[in-house]
Write a structure and sequence with these properties.
The complex is a heterodimer of chains A (67) and B (148). By secondary structure, chain A is mainly alpha-helical. Chain A has helices at residues 5-11, 16-23, 27-34, 42-52, 56-59; strands spanning 2-3, 38-39, 60-61. Chain A has a two-stranded antiparallel ribbon with strand order 1-3. In chain A, helix 2 (16-23) crosses helix 3 (27-34) and helix 2 crosses helix 4 (42-52). Chain A starts with a strand and ends in a 6-residue tail after the last strand. Chain B is mostly helical. Chain B has one domain (3-143). Helices cover 83% and strands 1% of the residues of chain B. Chain B has helices at residues 3-29, 31-34, 40-69, 75-107, 115-143, and one strand spanning 146-147. The longest helix of chain B has 33 residues, at 75-107. Chain B is elongated. The two termini of chain B are 20 Å apart. Classes of the chains: A mainly alpha (67), B mainly alpha (148). Chains A and B meet through helix 3 and strand 2 of A and helix 1, helix 4 and strand 1 of B. Strand 2 (38-39) of chain A pairs parallel with strand 1 (146-147) of chain B, so a sheet runs across the interface.
Chain lengths: 67, 148
């Protein structure tokens, strides 16, 4: 699963800790998300997308998708 | 370092020391002495070591329960713990199998197994479970891919 979490987080001036706190997960999970080493549950994906102010399909894309 | 990783490091360190201490006690006492009155001191020492390890597990579990309530542990930590438990189960089955087959081969001709080996197996399993699980937690957390 590819994602734009880091790009969108930095664009909004959020730290990993801030994004984690607002999304209801740990900073370690945000780190692993940004490294694309963790595929979040649906609820976490929606929570992260909501904090970043984007639709979930804009933040997360399955491998091999074009956009 | 996350709470989950800190907990795994602490548990791994404590159980490594327990394993080392147990090995030293078993080696200096000898299998044949372990089940006799002469081995009482060794058995008490090993029980004390295991108690320290189990107390550490208890403290870490309590901190994890509190951490979960405070949001310091999340779905990824649960997924890591599940993957580590699966790996521990497989590793433990392999270790117990190897140990029992090894003892069987070593004592097949004699037809009897010194009782001390059963004592070592019993306590050894407790040590191995905790140690292997904490190592598996660290390996999966640091490098592994888990899905939520």
């Amino acid at each position: 699963m590819r994602n734009r979490v880091r790009e969108l987080r930095e664009a909004r001036g959020l730290t990993q800790a801030e994004l984690a706190a607002r999304s209801g997960c740990t900073r370690q999970t945000i780190i692993m998300l940004e490294k694309e080493k963790y595929v979040p549950s649906l609820s976490l994906a929606f929570a992260v997308a909501a904090v970043l102010g984007d639709r979930v399909e804009e933040v997360f894309q399955p491998e091999g998708s074009s956009g | 370092m996350s709470l989950a990783r800190k907990s795994a490091v602490v548990v791994c360190t404590v159980w490594s020391l327990v394993a080392l201490g147990s090995c030293v006690i078993f080696a200096t006492t000898g299998v044949s002495q372990l089940s006799t009155d002469a081995g009482q001191g060794a058995r008490t020492a090993i029980a004390a070591l295991l108690l320290a390890g189990l107390a550490t597990n208890g403290v870490v579990s309590t901190l994890a329960w509190r951490g979960r309530k405070r949001g310091q542990l999340d779905e990824r930590d649960a997924a890591v713990a599940l993957r580590a438990s699966q790996a521990t189960l497989i590793a433990l089955a392999a270790i117990i199998y190897a140990a029992c087959i090894g003892l069987y081969v070593a004592h097949e001709d004699a037809g009897v197994l010194p009782a001390g080996w059963l004592y070592i197996l019993a306590y050894g399993i407790v040590v191995v479970v905790s140690l292997v699980h904490s190592i598996a937690l660290l390996v999966v957390d640091i490098g592994g891919r888990v899905d939520g």
